[in-house]
């Protein structure tokens, strides 16, 4: 086991314990104030727990009963937050080389390591620029390279894509997916796709306690906690890729737009779409929608000016007028439709 974590922080109401295997990525999910960032602060040495023990690769970082508390710079842990926090006076290459230089490597070795990591995150051409001359998405890629160039034993990611424009998020998510494949990582996120595509396991924290944990796909497909259920409000269907569409376990097809690498035939994929993109009919419609799901209404939940219609695995947000016009009640047989242009399909 790479990371063993047990800690209580009384003034923040935190009492959490978990383990992370070597090379595994664990996603911490939960509402604001649940304690996720507190966990990262304890691991990184930015906050001392009231009681607890943190062990990384058989090195004790914190042990309150033994009065052990290693300084942050001795922990061999890298923390990447929402803001890249690059040194503005250094070039991009010098920013990435900072970690290797701090570990005693020569200037030549550090620059070579920096160039290698910049190339790996798709930012090789930015080495001579200053941080003020790159975009937000590029700066966060550079921050990833800087964190990994320091060769940490553990990488901590605190919502690294939260401050990015939605247009550049998929590219950075793909970069992280590649570089995290064999690295021990703890990831804090609110995004269901981050948890699904980047993490091996999910730990749901609410009010400072672990309320759910398990394999990412299992937790998000069949959530047992209130927060995981709300998070999974994004319609999410698992299937198998057949070349130009996905086939679900019940045999139905889902058409959409592939996001990221093209899946190979037979690959497991996930199709996601927002509830507001789903329309509800009583009869199977004709025309443009390519995805039609025959189902039965399970629940009608008021959401401000809208009503969330729940039917099996799917949710649709429609107006109260539409609910009344269709006379939707529990048990109503319905056809839920979504256009292919609204569906994103990701390879698992």
Automatic annotation (TrEMBL):
Molecular functions per Gene Ontology: ATP binding; ATP hydrolysis activity
Keywords, in A-Z order: ATP-binding, Nucleotide-binding, Transport
Short name of one Pfam family: ABC_tran
Entry superkingdom: Bacteria
Residue intervals of the ABC transporter domain: 1-232
Cross-referenced InterPro entries: AAA+_ATPase, ABC_SmlMolc_Importer, ABC_transporter-like_ATP-bd, ABC_transporter-like_CS, Mo/tungstate-bd_C_term_dom, P-loop_NTPase, Transp-assoc_OB_typ1
Listed name of the protein: ABC transporter ATP-binding protein
